[in-house]
Structures are given as structure tokens and as C-alpha cells.
Write the C-alpha cells for this entry.
Amino acid sequence: MPGENLSRDEARERAALLSVDGYEVELDLRSAVGGSEQEPRTFRSVTTIRFRCAEPGATTFADLIAPSVTAVSLNGRDLDPVAVFDGSRITLEDLAAENELVVDAQCAYSRTGEGLHRFVDPEDGEVYLYTQYEPADSRRVFANFEQPDLKAPFRFEVQTPAGWTVWSNGVGEHKDGVWHFAETKPISTYITAVVAGPYHYVTDTYTRTFEDGTTLEIPLGALCRKGLARHFDADDVFLVTKQGLDFFHDHFDYPYPFGKYDQAFVPEYNLGAMENPGCVTFREEFIFRGKVTQAAYEGRANVILHEMAHMWFGDLVTMQWWDDLWLKESFADFMGAFSLVGATRFKDGWITFANRRKAWAYRADQLPSTHPVTADIRDLQDAKLNFDGITYAKGASVLKQLVAYAGQDAFLEGSRRYFKRHAYGNTQLGDLLSVLEETSGRDMTAWSRAWLQTAGVNSLTPQVLLDSDGRVSELAVVQEAPESHPDLRPHRVAVGLYRLTAEGDLERYARVETDVDGARTVVAELAGADAPDLVLVNDDDLTYCKIRFDENSLATLREHLGDITDPLARALCWSALWNLTRDALMPAREFIGLVLRFGGRESDIGVLQMLHAWAQSAHVHYAAPAWREEGGLQLAEAALRELRLGEPGSQHQLAWARFFAAVASSGSDLQFLRDLLEGTERLEGLEVDQELRWAFLEPLAAYGVADEGVLAAELVRDDTASGKRHQVRCLAARPSAAVKAQAWAAVVESDALSNALVEATIAGFAQPSQRGTLAPYAAKYFDAIERVWSERSIQIGMDVVRGLFPGLQDSSETVAAADAWLEGHLGSAPALRRLVVEARDDLARALRGQACDAAAGGTL
């Protein structure tokens, strides 16, 4: 419907007209249980909004997406619902200076993770509800003014089936069969929340005494489905939570402002987590059903801290419109890593940031759809797509550069002033820059123009000249930018010089911090230094750039990458080599060879798992087709070797087991996986728990070794929501035309599957070993996507358009088909076109990589 896609101009007009004094929202959720699962379900939603109008007599609208509206009352006047409600907006005419709007509606439960999601646990039949709104889905649950700058206090009342508990942003009290929640502070609509059902709930308390003698006590809660309670390590969640609250109180000088702090781990969640104040929601996969590596615990801790940072950056102070989404997401991403290292046991968080988060940013920043950190967000569909690697990881990287540029103390003092100056308000870019100028004394305008208002990623390459004595006569840093985004930025960098020791280690012996500006910068301080074996131009990862190497440094890495003693420096080199591979400057087979040669020596488990993902991607997308079979065998052989060599019971052993399953393709390798599953083969220390069993079953299904009966038997063994998702993925992975047709129909031609099962089906559908079987779906994809986009929710539309793009049909014909679709659909939704443009660019990049790899191997 046209009214669903609120534009920035409409939001500005409404914000100039209205100010909201408060909401009262009554939800009757008793319809969540009972009845037929085949029939659409709705719930009653009654909303009272009190608001003021700057121009009495004016006309505006309230937002609501609902199957029907029973009654609308404005200032005591009953309005005709049919006349004023078009399915997404309620027209409000002849407004008074002070207004009261009452809307009684029947809203729909969601199966797509948008609005009020309803989940039935197959394990015990229990029903669980939760809300997810960002950027604009609270209008699926109650009538409102759905834009971030119309903040207001909220008061919720929720009626539920007997025996349920309800959580919301405020403290709740159960009275006369209804849950009543304390009024919130002024917050935006998209961060209100309701979680309801027979959840397992654990409590704790955080206490903080400040220097002035006052004490802050925050009730803590953590909840999950009853079926996951036996796996729920709430103590570790509370530990990280308390460490984070201590850290942010130490650094922000603004007490946590939202009373209690509940954290709900919910099923079928589309995101990692959402920062609803007082009621944070997380995907339940953060509750680990099997053995995982420390990287998984670190990742969960990072997300907990990321969401906690939002309590200040985003919830207390909120961006005015989605253009400045970075004001919350970039800061939270940076603060997640900053607090992870500063407050928890995960002291190598910056290594993960450099290796994993920035890889996401580098990819996004080289797409045709790249945008400045402060983006041009025309409407809500734009906003939905801009929760991307630029807004999160590039923005966080830029903030890390800002800390190096302005100084950590000045940065934190600026943050403190920002909170106090704009508490419970809305801000734009200039509001933050002004306080940072105050605290740092630096000109933030030029910095912002270079880093926040331009797109693209620069490359930094060292140039080393030696004198006759073998010492450095000149070391310079050359900065380059792509033609599409030619801006050269100022970089505060550390340049490190490394050399091999007598013991064979590659260690740093000189380091200089300097400002790189322009096309070529001479680092005068390094003149006269001993000749380096390796020059690392962004040592310690202070700036955001693609690292390049001079020929001598690259030759050193080819022989001694595993000898770098510093784990962050090693991770930076791996990341740089991966960027060379993606840019078709290093053959995929060479990158894979480096992983096979040095991966087994990688001490950081997060880096190792990233190397596994990159090696697999290099093999699937960037390796020449003629070499794929051989490359796959090499990967599997090396993975099995490292698996057998791994310390029994270690996280490295587990990581290599998972990687071996991901790359196994030969009959003997598949038989080994089958033997591990059946227990006829054992590896000391390797526990083949239920999650690992499913990891082994997917390749067996994809190569036709595990049939429908085997997968059905496994579901009996693991008859849970998680087991069902795994089974659906494995079923879709089977190598049969009939299976692919069934999977395609289930996702594209039907809306019967929930969001989680759509995701699982898509994940199983596209198997690299089945390119021939998948070939007919290239044309079907381009025939279907516009219809899917118009008929389905934006979340499902994004999943289908991204997940089913025929990228495995890696030929110029597929690129041409994408170009033809884009040329023939100039009037399609900009967000849909962006998704196709991005997928098309990934494919074109893969083809360039394949050509590079073929040239290295002599064949295409």
C-alpha cells in the first residue's frame, strides 16, 4: 500500500505540526491460544494518543497496519473507520490545539518477525509472543505516529491467557487478570516492546554506588522458551550485563535511565538483537544447544554490550530521522568492541572487530549501493536496507579513527555532554560534532566531510627505498581511491616495521604514528631504520582502509605469515590478503593455499573461523571452475588433517570439524562424516552433539547420502524448534529437481512458512555442488521478484531477493540477465532495485576473481 512507505518529507511535515504527550495502549492477546492454526489470527488493540497541534484546523494522519478498524474517535467525535482508514493510515482532519485520538482495531499476529510475532513451540505446543518494530512496525500492533522524532511516554496494559507472564519497557504488575506497566520515559515508537508467554525467567540485581553516595539498583531479568531452559547459561549473561553497566557508568557519567533491564531470547528472530529500553530482545540462537567456541561467547557478549550502549546512544538520545541512523548504530558497534575489551574476559575484541566486522564494511563500501555513513534516507524502505555494513561496521571504524584523531578522553567527554544536553530528545549530525569540537579543540567539520559524508574505501600501500647500507632511505604511504569515489581522506595511522628473528619469528621492531593525507605521505621518522621484511601500514588498526603490501612484504607473507607473533597484526594481514583476493589481485587458489599452510597455526579461534569462511567463499565464488574440484579436495584433505591433529576436546578441533563438514565432497570424506554420526568412527575429544550432528547431516543430504527418511529420524531425535529448522534446511539441500521445485514453491509461491523456515529453506536450496540442478531457477528468479516484493512483507522480500539470486550461475549470461531486469524495471521500488544491483555486483566481482585465478592456473 502506498501509505506504508512513509517518506522523510512527510515525517518532517508531521513533526513540525505535532507534539505527542502520551500513549495508552491496551492489547488483548487471549486469542493467541486455541482455535485452528490454519485460520488467520487477530488481537484487539485499543490505543489512546494525546497530542498537540501547532496549527489548529490542520489535517494529518496516524499510522496503523491492521486487517480492520472497529472504531475511531477524535476529540470525542466518532469517525467512520471505512472513510478514514485505508489499511495503513488513519486520516485526521480539523485538529484542535489539544487532541485525543482513540483507535480500536483488530491487528494481525505476525509469522514474519515483524510486529507481534506468534510462535508455536513444536516441542510442547506452547505459544510465545514478542514484538519487533525497527524501523516502523509498531504500527502493526497499535495506532501511532511512526517516526523517531515524535517521542512520548507510553503506558501499556496487556490481557493474556491464564498462566502467562508479560514483559514490556516498564515494570509490570498483574492485577485483575491484566498486566499493567509503569509509564515509560519519552521514547520513540520503534523501541517499545511487549514479550508474552510461558517463558522461563531468571532474575538478578545490579547495584552501583556513585561517588556522591547515591545508589542505583537495577532489577535484571533473562528469559527464554521453556524448551531451552536446560541450555540457558543466564549466569554468564548476567555477568557480562553487570560488567557492561559498570563500564558505561564509569565512562558515560549518566546513570542507566530506564529502570529495570530484562533480556529476552526469543524464537524466529530476524535480527541479532534489538535495544528496546528495559526489555532487550535477542535471537535465541545465542543460547547454545551444543558445544561452541569462545568466539561464539565473545560474539554474544559483544551483542549484549552493543544493545546496552544503545540505552544511551539511540534510546536516551535518538536520531531525528533515519539519515542519522549512524548516531546510534555506529556508536553501539564501536562501544560493543570498546567495552568488550575494557570490561570483560574477551580482551582480543579488537582482533575480531578488525577481522570480522570490518570485512562486512569493506564489502558494503565497494558495492554500487555504497553510501556515506550519514546517508540520504528518503523513506522507510531506504531505512530498512541501510542497516548495513556501512552504518554499523564502517561507522564504528570511523569512530575508532575519530578516537585516534581527537583523543579518547575528548571523545568520551563529548559523549557525556551529548547525553546531558539532549536527554530524551532527538539529534542530527551537527549536535554531536559541536560537543566534540568543544572537547577536542579539533575542527570536526572537515573531519566529518571526509569521513561521514563521503563514500568508498581508500587503499594504503607502503613504498620503501633502501640506501647502499641496506637501511630505509625513505618510506612513504601511497593513498588511492576508486574512480567512483575518488576522495582521499586524512588517516591517523600507525606504520609498523617487522623483521624475522633468529628464532624464525616475525616481530615488530619499529612503530610510528603519523597523519597520512593526500596521495603520498613520507614517514620521515622511519628514515634510517633497518630494512624491514614486512611493512604494515595500518598497524594496530587505527583507521579504516584497505591495506596493501609492497612486493617484499608480500613475499614475506607468502613464506612467514604464520610466524607473525602479534595476533592483531596477523589478523590484519589475513584481512588484507582476503581483500586482495576479492579485488582479483590475488588468485583464489593462492589465498586458499595460504589458509591451508598457515591456518592450522592460527591461535585466535575467531580469526580461524573467519579464515574457514573466507577459504570456502574463495573456493565457491572466486576459484576458476576448472580448479574447483581439485581445490575442494585440497580443502577437505587439509581440514581432515587438522581435525585429526587438533587437541582433543579443544575449540580448534571443533572448528576444524565444522569446516571439514562444510567442504567434504568425496565419497570417502562423506563416509567418514557418516561414520562419525553413527558412532562407528570416533575422534578423541570430539563430542558429536546434536548441533554438530545437523552440521554433518547437511553435506550428507546435499550429496544424496542422507535421504528424507534419515532426516525424519533425526527430527524424532531432536523434535524441537531448532531441530525443525535444521531438518527443513537439510531437506531443501537434497540434489533433486523435485526437491528444488518443492522448496522454490514453498518460499516463492506460498506464504505458509514462517520467517525462520523461509530462511532455512533458502539456506538449503542454494548448494554450490548443484549448479546444474539450480540452473532453471535463474530465469524464474527474475520473473518472480517484483511480484514477491509487492505481495510479501519487506523482511520476507529481502530474504527472497537476496537469498535466491542465482549467483551460483556464475557466468556473463547471468550478469546480462540481471542487467536486462534492471533496464526493464526502472520504475520498480528503489529498495528492490538496490538488492538486485548488489547481488549483480557480487557476481561480477566473482567472475573477475575467477579470471584472475584461471590466469594463475593457466585455464578457465
